[in-house]
What does this fold into?
Amino acid sequence: MIELRTPTELDGLRVAGRFVADVLDELLRTVDVGVNLLDLDRVAAQMIADRGAVSCYVDYHPSFGNSPFGRNLCTSVNDAALHGLPHDRVLADGDLVSLDFAASVDGWVADSAVTVQVGTPREEDQRLIDTVERALAAGIAQARPGNKLGDVSSAIGAVERRAGYDVNLQFGGHGVGRTMHGEPHVPNDGRPGRGLKLRPGLVVAIEPWLMQGTDELVQDADGWTLRSVDGSRAAHVEHTVAVTETGPEVLTLRADART
Ligand code: MG
It folds into this structure.
């Protein structure tokens, strides 16, 4: 079921969005050569506890999972594209890490992700990051009343395909509200003018992601982490966005993007 949020409910989602953005800001300050992925998990866990928020990930146990996720965020490093399970691994110079975080504050959820290079940047990694960020911006720009969901999807896919990447349609964005994953599914490519009509109060997570050399994933032995089948690197960005009367409102803007 597609749920549309009232102005009061949107206020709750804004609070959750700000918290998720603040956690990602703190994680971005923490990421560095020599930092363990479990340190990042501890940062998120502490901020959740301090805020009285609830993790969306710790008890997350979908049908494909062997056991609950057990950590507070996804850390996907290098050829890991999505759902990276934090483990005992120290970040090294030249790593590419995506941080995907969602939490519930007073019963409302927000979900956001960012990809960052660790230490010495690489040109091809920056191009991957720039492309998913441009795709995210293009998708968000279409999230306005009167448009269709296909306008969002096709805007994302067009940026990615024009940059020469193949687009995977297995995993994409999703409705966000009381829980992390709701309807509608937001594919990362599609046809303009098709699909759900966007109305004020619709809240979705838009999350383009790409792999350098393939669109095929393979699941890691940990039962969660999804890697590129060819070992090429991946980038993933995500914002929770509300469709409002006046256009898209990004609920998870980090500090450097807020005015
Ligand atoms: Mg997410």
In short: The domain at 7-254 is CATH 3.90.230.10 (Creatine Amidinohydrolase). The CA atoms of residues 252 and 258 lie 10 Å apart.
